[in-house]
Structure formats: C-alpha cells, structure tokens
Amino acid sequence: MGATESVPGDGPVPEMHHYYSKFMRECPSGQLSLHEFKKLLGLQGLDPQGDLYIKRVFDIFDLNQDGFIDFLEFIAAINLVIRGKIDQKLKWYFKLYDADGNGCIDKKELLSIFTAIQAINGHTDMTAEEFTDMVFQKIDVNNDGELTLEEFISGVERDRNLMELITKSFDLSNVLKAIQNGRRHSI
C-alpha cells in the first residue's frame, strides 16, 4: 500500500493523489457533467425512474449547483459515503428523498426515489409501495403523511431494522467503487 509516500501527520495525501489522478483521467476538464457521470458509472440508458435517481444523486454531489461535479465536490461525496457518520448520511438520504426541496418527504417522493433505486440496484425484498408504507408507518409519528428531517433521523436511528434496510438499499459505495475503478469502457 503506498504507506512509504506518507509523511507523518499528512493524513490521506497519497489516497487523495490517487483519486485526483483517477478523476482527471476520467474527466480531463476537471468538471464532470451529468452525462459523463452516468457514462463513468456505466448507467446510460436507464428507465426514466433510474435517470431521475441518478440526477438527484448528481445534484446533491454538485454542492455549488453549477451543473458539474468538480474534484472537491467529488472528494466530499466520497468522504460522506465512505467515512460519513450515520447522522450525516441520514441527512444526505433525506435530501435525496426530498425531491421538491420543501423540507419534508411525502409518500410520493419516497415512492419515486425507491422505485428509481430499485431500477438501478435491482435486488430488493419488498415492493416500493411496501417499503414506503412501512417507513411511514414506523416513523411518521404525528401521522400527517409527511416526514420532517427530525422525524426521519430520529425514526430511523430508533429502528435498527429500518436503519439497516435504508443503509443497504441506498448504499452508494458500489457507485463510488465504480468511480474509483474507472468503470468507463476502454476503447
């Protein structure tokens, strides 16, 4: 492992260098567009639901909302997904589900995102409707048909099975592994 390149106290610099060279090889402009993001992950030609999900992921990684993921945004995304604490991840998931950005998740939003994720990940033990009903049944404490960020985080943290299900269903580490390994088809 390139531990010899490391200077005491300099943290993950060799790893950063690895990501940087990988990122620049895949994206010489230093700006990853949505089209390039899909190509990099080998996710072109998805159904509309799958496309919607990838676009949401892209938009959330695109921190400054300029329509591109630059290297710093890319590293922030990798850090969150691989090293992020559980409440950071839950905030990120909430943002992903809250499609209209109004600060609440309704059943329709959760259903559409989960349907899209199923289109990409394929494997699941329940339908999108069952998943959505189960989540709302467990954590919509005031039964208003919407989940606030607080309801979502405390509800998921309270319920071990739900936490596991959400973490597994929305695991993006395979997406990031594809980026790390440069899954773009060689010519």
* Number of DSSP helical runs: 10
The main sheet orders its strands as: 1-2
In CATH, the architecture is Orthogonal Bundle
Structural class computed from helices and strand pairing: mainly alpha
In CATH, the topology is named: Recoverin, domain 1
Largest sheet: 2 strands, antiparallel
Average residue pLDDT: 77
In whole angstroms, how far apart are the ends?
Answer: 29 Å
**How much β-strand is present in the residues?**
5-15%
**What number of domains?**
1
Count of distinct strands: 4
Low-confidence stretches: 1-13, 183-187
> Could you name the CATH class?
Mainly Alpha
Quick description:
Keywords: Calcium, Lipoprotein, Metal-binding, Myristate, Repeat. InterPro entries: EF-hand-dom_pair, EF_Hand_1_Ca_BS, EF_hand_dom, Recoverin. This protein has 187 residues and is mainly α.
Account of the protein in words:
With 187 residues, the protein is mainly alpha-helical. It has one domain (13-181): Recoverin, domain 1, CATH 1.10.238.10. Helices cover 63% and strands 5% of the residues. It is built from ten helices and four strands, in the order αβααβααβααβααα. The chain has helices at 13-26, 34-41, 48-61, 71-83, 86-97, 107-121, 128-139, 149-158, 160-169, 173-181; strands spanning 31-32, 69-70, 104-106, 146-148. It has a two-stranded antiparallel ribbon with strand order 1-2. The longest helix has 15 residues, at 107-121. The two termini are 29 Å apart. Mean pLDDT is 77; it is low at 1-13 and 183-187. It comes from Crypturellus soui. It holds the Pfam family EF-hand_1. One of its GO terms (cellular component) is photoreceptor outer segment.
